[in-house]
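Blackboard transcription, Thursday session:
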Amino acid sequence: NAGVTQTPKFQVLKTGQSMTLQCAQDMNHEYMSWYRQDPGMGLRLIHYSVGAGITDQGEVPNGYNVSRSTTEDFPLRLLSAAPSQTSVYFCASSYSLSYNTEAFFGQGTRLTVV
Amino acid sequence: KQEVTQIPAALSVPEGENLVLNCSFTDSAIYNLQWFRQDPGKGLTSLLLIQSSQREQTSGRLNASLDKSSGRSTLYIAASQPGDSATYLCAVPFHQTGANNLFFGTGTRLTVIP
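(Written on the board underneath:)
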């Protein structure tokens, strides 16, 4: 059982480049989300989805796009990378519509924008 | 806006010692509180989830308590081992967007010295 799988694990981008961070889960979870983790700031929510075809913004959505065409996949797109987007990105999933649902996290993608 | 604080930011203890990690939150209208473990360069692993109606939750050597009225939770680790060395994070849901989106504290980095 793979759980939540993120690719790539590491990435270096030049300012202005675009890329897609991949996230897939095999637990049939309705809910998926993306967080970024920066030193001294904890994890902050970027975007989330409560099911295929439904996405919404989190706390820090600017500069990122998401879509959810299948239950399994929730890619995060950086449209034009900026040094401020240097961070570790985590994808998470859980059963939706429950007030007491455990969150499962991927291993993270460490992104550096130069 | 919910704020989650974890003190201390770092803690170093000798092996075998019992220890307590603290988490405080400003908005007591929470559905639950989760404790996670994060190993260096790794993703987050859920340790315990305490529902808002519960006072305590136990898993092995770990015991988490929740006092909603005072906005506090503690994670008690009994008979600490070097393998417990990691960063411990607490998180509470965004009340406005349901139970799946999480506010995280900045974590306590625990080192257990053999």
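Lecturer's comment: Residues 8 and 68 of chain B are 20 Å apart (CA to CA).
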